[in-house]
Amino acid sequence: CHEGVLPPPRRSGSDSRESCPMGANGKANGVKNGEANGESAPPTPKEQPMWLTVLHYVLEEHRGKINFFIVLPLSFMYDLVWGWRDWFYETFCTTPHLHGERVAEVQRQVKEWRARKDAGEEVGKMCTDRRPWLTMGPATRTFKKDCRKIKCSGMCDILKVDEGKMTVTCEPLVNMGHLTRVLLPRGFALKIQIEMEDITIGGLSMGLGMETNSHRFGLIQECIRSYDLVLSNGELVHCTRDNEHKDIFGCLAWSCGTLGFLVAVEVDLVRVKPYIRARYLPCFSQEEHCQKMKELSLLPEGQTPQYLESTVYSRDKAVIQACDFVDITWWQWLTEVNSVNLWYKPYYYKWVETAFGRTNARTGEAGFEEILPIKHYYHRYTRSIFWELNDLIPFGNSPLYRYFFGWLGAPKVAFLKIFMTKAIRESVVTKHVVQDIIVPVDSMQEGLQLFHDEMDLYPLLVFPIRIYDHGSTQGFLRAPRRVDGVDGPEGQHPGKQWGMYVDLGAYGVPQAVRDKKHWDFEKALLRMEQWTRDQGGYQCFYTDFLLTRDEYREMFDHSNYDKLRERTGAKEAFPEVYDKVRPELAVCDRNGKAKTKAN
Fold it and tell me: Quick check: 515 pLDDT over 80?
């Protein structure tokens, strides 16, 4: 984060004598004390080269300047070059007819690994060859350094758009930007269309994905028709909800590739119109906000908004955004359409905040409404990385910056991670929050108050989400404790029961840190995690969590997952999901330690 907001902690190590309890003569004293106790002296840390010390100082003490003068232009050039590259590739070089050959190559590598494993070689476990820093979360997971990397990076083609079945079949590295470029001109979108353009369909379908229509359709896992998976023995299986591999199908979401290698996924589509009408409804108390969100999310299909979310700006103030598709006239196109993603426009969340001081001219109620292009709506948070860019470039929403530099876009998360030192990465955990929890809708008010008490950062993001009961093939998410509805014949899953949950998202710097006061990150996160488990909720795994292995298993149901890993050989072939998603920092590792500060 910007150095004026998040000063990184002082490094400890061989280059700082202040950090050594033995003082300047620590090495000699350490040897004497060790000899007196009959112990060998600890190894002397290797001194850090001067150039590396200087580099770390510049990266840590001038973080904002690095972001503006290096990361931002680098991100712009990357987008420019790769934008042309993607256009050229998508226009002239896609090879869906070679998909079978690419799958066969993955199978060949897996079978080779299996043969060497069976021969007694130490070959480690397997993972994909995708670079860890390309992921969208704040962490750079380190599990891959001990794994055999299977080359899958060429799997980036859309294989088929089936307008009759209303599905699209993709290879796993197709991202959201690619899908919107292909689908929107044809009048389609993914049923759950994620807003961040760099997120891949493979990561979403084997992990999780939510959007503002999840109150109608659930998480993206509910919109998957089939997975094509290469198992640990090289066998290719086609998994659906009702074929012989339905048990595998049910466990793939949230498994993060620990049951096999995804080589294709078929996802539901919906028909969309080019424009939506967005209504911005301000709320002036927690009670009003929570009650309205529950009422709107539980309305029957056809009455509930097609897209629904809210942004919380303080303990008692929030704006609900309720959106529906609309047909427009040329006059409305001239006078009412707001293309919110144009470079000179205010950040979307800042624009929504103006609802508190406005009156809807059509209804006379507080708030306002407008018409948005659907593509701008889908990617409304891309320019500001939700609201994180305000801390990375504090002047980024000023009119002067937007008009003269807004065309540069936002820095890429991947590049931000490249320029992180260990000290900066630790400050992202200890002085900064990226958290998403999914809890029952009736726990929403208590959760918002918990975030206020423990973190006191705003804005907060609220998405309502259906969680379905799939019986014996439930997977990682348990059946909802309370049933709020049952899908009808035209529903997402006819006859299936569901409960309404909400995702509460907190991204940014706690107020205590902004005020240069102490913020106990461990106490705050442990209390949030304990409360989430008590509510029967879930913490999204891309966050920097403090959960131990046992606590993670308490939160997520591993019963079917463990059986499948034993039966398919995945246990010896792939890391366990906890080992893939656990934060890489020692400050987050509580395994084997006593539980503290949770209450």
Answer: yes
